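Why does residue order matter? Because the sequence determines the fold. Keep that principle in mind as you read this record.
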Amino acid sequence: MQLIDEIVARKQDLTAWRRDLHAHPETAFEEHRTADIVAEKLKSFGIEVHRGLAKTGVVGTLKAGTGNRAIGLRADMDALDLHELNDFAHKSTYQGKMHGCGHDGHTTMLLGAAQYLANSRKFDGIVHFIFQPAEENLAGGKVMVDDGLFRLFPCESVFGMHNMPGYDIGKFAVRVGPMMASADMFWIKIRGKGAHGAYPHQGIDPVAIGAEIVLAAQHIVGRNVDPLQPAVVSICQFNAGHTTNVIPEEATLSGTARAFSPQVQDLIESRLRQIVTGIAATHGAVAELDYQRRYPPTINTADETELAARAAAAVVGQDNVLRNLAPSMGAEDFAWMLREKPGSYVWIGNGAGEGSCMIHNPHYDFNDEALTIGASYWARLVEMALPAA
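Structure:
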C-alpha cells in the first residue's frame, strides 16, 4: 500500500478522535457535540467553516492554487438508536445510542484528509468537506441539499465513502451505475368493524384482510416486476388487537420496498396501492396506504467512478480495487447528493473473517486500521481531481 506518510504519522491521533466519537454517539439532528468537534478541528487546520445546514451540518472549505474548480467530499456523523453490547474502553457512554454503522470512522477519515490537505495544499481548486447529519432514516443528505448545499458551496462533483465489513482491510469496492437501492417506506391502516371473536360474521375482520394483503404483496416482485430488474417488498410490522376473543376495529402494517430504478419504484407503489384498496373493498373495509420515497437509488456516474477507482488504486494497488461487485439492496441518503451532482460512492473494507460483524449490529466497531487508508484515499482523490499546476 502507498499510504501518505504524513497521515500515517497521525494514526494515533486519528484513532483517539474516532474512539472519542464512538464513546459519545449522537443520533439524527442531535449531533451537537460531534459538530462542535468537527468545526473546531477544521478551524484549527485553517479551514473556513460554515454551520447550520440541516441543523447540525458542518461544511469546511479549503482553497489552494488559483483554480476555481470545486469538488465535495461527504462524511456522515450520526449514530443509531441501538444498545451497544461491546465491552471495550471506548464503548458508548450514552444508553441506547451507538455508532453501529461506522460514521465515527467516516467523520475521522475525512478530518484526517482535511488536516493533510490544509498542510500540503498539493491541489489547485476548492474542496468542500461536507459533514452530514441524520443519514440513518431521516435523510439528512436531502435536507442539506434542500437547505442550499450546492447553491452555497458549488461543486462540479461529489464523492462519498462507507466502510463495509466482509471486505478485507486494504480493499475498496466501487461500480458504475447503481451502487445501492432506493428505500421506500410504507404504512397501511385497515379499518374494519370490531366484533366478538365467537361471532366473526357480525364484524369486518381487519386481521384477515391484513393477512391477504401481506400475501398479495409478495406477488408484486414475483409476478409484476421484470425478473431482470431487482426489487424487494417486505412487510415488517403487523399490529392489531389487544386480547384473544375480540376482533379489533383496526390493523396496521408497515414495511419497505427497494429497487434500482424509478420505473420499478412507480410499479411497486401503484400495485401496492391497488392491492391495499382492492382487498379492503372486497371485504367491506377501508384501507389507506401512506407510501414515502425516503432515499432514491445511489447511482455512480462513469467518469467520477473511474477517478475514484484510480485514487483508490494509488493507495492500495489496482488488484485491491474491486470493480465488478453486485449492487446492494441497502440504501444510502448520499443518493440525494448524487441526484444533484455527478459523483461516486465507494466502499472501504472494514475487515473480514473471525471477529468482524456487519453494521447495525450491537457488537460492531469501526476498524481503526482503515483510518489512514481512507484518509489517504480522500487526499489522493482531491490531488487527482484538482491537480496542481
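The first helix runs from residue 5 to 8.
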